[in-house]
Amino acid sequence: MSDHACGSCSSSGSGCSSQDCSPEDMKLKKTLSKIKHKIVVISGKGGVGKSTVATNIAVALSLAGKQVGLLDVDVHGPSVPRLLCLEDQKPHIGHEIIEPISYSKNLWVMSLGFMLPSKEDPVIWRGPVKIGLIKQFVQDVAWGDLDFLIVDCPPGTGDEPLSALQTLGSDAQAIIVTTPQGVAIDDVRRSVNFCKQVGNPILGLVENMSGFVCPDCGSIHNIFNTGGGEALAKETGVKFLGRIPLDPEVGRSGDEGYPIVRVDHEGITGKALNAIIKPILNISETLQENLKMPSVNDLKAKNGMIRIAIPVAGGKLCMHFGHCEQFALLDVDTVTKGVVATNMETPPAHEPGILPRWIADQGVNLVLAGGMGAKAQSLFTDAGVRVVVGAPAESPENVVASYLAGTLVTGQNTCDH
Ligand code: ADP
Fold first, then answer.
1. Domain count across the chain
2. Which residues form the Dinitrogenase iron-molybdenum cofactor biosynthesis domain (predicted)?
């Protein structure tokens, strides 16, 4: 289940130069390399408001000035054209490229719905066709440079969401949408486990239709139990992004094709949606912050010491993080900025997710690496370990000396798998 974007090397970024990549794989990689954040909106089952949430997130991000793509690959009922009042639009199909529909100057939309002869026709796709379509809609659409691609995925934990995640790569993050009832919660538990098995990070959980906004008095009445989503988020270690009430205005906005975030800024629902979007907007800034080279003082010292780890092969920094023989662990005095001890440690056998945990257990604050995949970087960040990529293949002592002197020059992330 770990076969991501590039069939030959599991790479999802632009770093792959594998000879085995097919022209299609290369095209997909090129498209994905221009997209900073891929967010897949999934749900255990249909009708929980997944498309509504995906659409409002995309519109809110565009209103915040981001370049956004919204891709609707819900083969069972593509509803984004209706939600955005774009039902009559037909994308221009050029030579091997499809132009997305421009909703605004910085929001582009593509939906399977645009391709259907009539909205009354039931959508009957055979399995392999569905899978191929999802890949095609990522690779053959002229998305251009995007801050965010929001993907409205088919519901469930079957082949289609799996294919969407595999197409987008292991750094695509999932938002799981649920409703508060117990039965929906069971579905979400499956969705959480699904993402964990596929190996994609979960950005968070949204509880939709959580309490009813009374049109007469404006207050919230809890029809179903609330808090189930939040409790499940806690139980599974997933971030709870927030709850959106069942609001007749949301239903109306969906039917009439105007996203609620465009009109409701101060109401209960508008505020709820904006609270959900905040951490999504922040992932850009947090990522940018994390990519900067931290100074010794930025790292959390313990008893005046920090520990730096360097992957080593043949006595030098190993450019392929996962292929190193040993790690050099260098302890640095934060006052004198001198190395006081160097230990060579052999890591456990390389399996996904093992090294970040092991490194964190060694008390490491900073990893200086040649190259590292986006997924591994996010695992380190989660474990509280900073990562700098693009360091040169020199001895660990030289690399650390340059880092401490402030003269470490980093190049490209040399390996993205
Ligand atoms: P899904 O994509 O999960 O199938 P949709 O986003 O299409 O679900 O939503 C299903 C229906 O529920 C739509 O008619 C939509 O307008 C409505 N809906 C979604 N969220 C809310 C909400 N918070 N309040 C009121 N109606 C909602």
1. 2
2. 314-404
- CATH number of the domain within which 349 lies: 3.30.420.130
132 occurs within a structural domain: yes
Q: What is the pTM of this model?
A: 0.70
Residue 112 CA to residue 240 CA, distance in Å, equals 30
> Which residues are paired to 175 by β-bridges?
41, 204
Nearest atom of ligand 1 to the alpha carbon of 47: 4
Ligand 1-lining residues (CB < 6 angstroms): 43, 46-52, 79, 208-209, 244, 246-247, 250-251, 254
Residue 46, annotated as binding a ligand? yes
Last residue of a domain, one of 263, 290, 317: 290
CA–CA gap between residue 356 and residue 353 (Å, rounded): 6
Count the neighbouring beta carbons within 10 Å of the beta carbon of residue 298: 13
The residue with greater pLDDT, 15 or 228, is 228
**Cβ-based burial of 292 (10 A; exposed 0-12, middle 13-18, buried ≥19):** exposed
Q: How far is the CA of 47 from the centre of ligand 1 (A)?
A: 6
Longest CA–CA span in the chain (Å) reads 73
Q: Whose CA is nearest to atom 17 of ligand 1?
A: 251
Distance set, CA 329 to CA 78, 341, 347, 364 (Å): 52, 8, 11, 8
Separation of alpha carbons 36 and 53, rounded Å:
20
Residue range 86-101, pLDDT digits in tens: 999 999 988 888 999 9
DSSP SS3 for 139: helix
Does residue 97 contact residue 140 with C-beta atoms inside 8 Å?
yes
**Residue 370 labeled ligand binder:** no
* Residue 4 forms part of a structural domain: no
47 marked as part of a ligand binding site: yes
Q: Which residues contact 149 (CB under 8 A, 6 or more apart)?
A: 35, 37, 38, 39, 68, 69, 70, 71, 143, 168
Strand partners, 292: none
Q: Which two tokens stand for residue 173?
A: 């993050």
pLDDT digits (tens, 9 = 90+) for 207-229: 998 877 777 777 777 766 666 77
